[in-house]
Amino acid sequence: MANPDIYRKRLIPNECILLKDDTVLEANDEIIVTKWKTLKPRRDFHHGYSCYFLKAGYKVSKFYRENGSLLYWYCDIVDYSFDEKENALIVTDLLADVVIYPDGYIKVLDIGELAIALQKNLCEPKLVASALIRLDRLLTIIYEDKFDTLSSHVERWIERA
């Protein structure tokens, strides 16, 4: 997979957006690392780096404020599909998220939205089950103090910058 176009697909709201300004730093069959700025100006964060773990089903991002200070690590539970002909990676946000703050506080978000997506038939029960399994695996990595095995893929690119 050579520097694919990356699309962010959401279930709520239903949208699919090309991340046209994301820069792919590394791409292989296991991971894709990008650097990016927010699509629209925001007060809370400005830019960051992301690592898409293609086989694991999550994306780990380091969010920065405009002044360059760390806001938090944001982990999305996702599903991937790849269009080889178009060299396009579609990243579907499965709604469940984990935020890790600089002080170590961990917050799980949007589990209720995942249930709403299921109730409204926006996704199949099999996909919801897969999202929950991925969330459990991610939380296990975090709680076992092994998050560095994920964050290191982003950190090495930050060190090069």
Mind explaining what this structure looks like?
The chain is globular, with a radius of gyration of 15 Å. It is of the alpha+beta class. Strand 1 and strand 2 form a beta hairpin. Strands 1, 2, 3, 4, 5, 6, 7, 8 and 9 form a nine-stranded mixed beta sheet that branches. Helices cover 25% and strands 42% of the residues. It contains three helices and nine strands.
Write the layout of secondary structure elements.
Layout (H helix, E strand, L loop, with lengths): L4 E6 L4 E4 L4 E5 L3 E7 L9 E7 L4 E7 L5 E14 L4 E13 L5 E4 L1 H9 L5 H19 L4 H13 L1
How many strands, which pairing sense, and closed or not: the largest β-sheet?
9 strands, mixed
Radius of gyration: 15 Å
Question: How many DSSP helices?
Answer: 3
Instruction: Give me the secondary-structure category.
Output: alpha+beta
Q: What is the N-to-C order of secondary-structure elements (H for helix, E for strand)?
A: EEEEEEEEEHHH
**What is the end-to-end distance?**
23 Å
The chain-level mean pLDDT equals 94
Strand content: 35-45%
Bulk shape: globular
> How many individual β-strands?
9
Low-confidence stretches: none
Task: State the helical fraction.
Answer: 25-40%
